[in-house]
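Title: Prediction job returns without error message
Component: structure pipeline
Severity: low
Priority: P3
Assignee: unassigned

Description:
Job completed but the reporter wants confirmation the result is attached to the right record. Sequence as submitted:
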Amino acid sequence: MRAKLSYAITAAVLVFYFVLVGSRGVMLIQSGTLITVTFGVAVLILPVIGLWFLWKNTQFVRRANALAAELDAEGGLPVDELKRTPGGRIDRDSADEVFAKRKAETEAAPDDWRSWFRLAVAYHDARDTPRARKAMQKAIALHDGKTVEA
């Protein structure tokens, strides 16, 4: 729940920022000179790109959460079997062991979105966010019946 609230607050702040920047772009365009119109158009491009990234990220998170809910209903969510340090951090060797298991599962069933989902969780636990995201994208694509290269 805390992560959802955090995400919602961040998204709201970003939207506010995009509106603010966009209004400045419109003000520059309304000035009417060649240089201010040029800058105004350039400034308007930034919020459009930002909104697109925010939208794509939100869609990704929603779809990943839907997969998690489906996997939970099936009883297939990965169990947290990671050892932790006294401070609560994940032990690196433990994360590597779990990752090796998840990778082997995924290699054994490369067309199963569930194994890719669990691999994504293992990548995340190993603090490899880019690969975690890519594995989750693969899980989403497989779930949706699309063929995607890993």
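Comment from assignee: result matches the submitted record. The longest helix spans residues 34-74.
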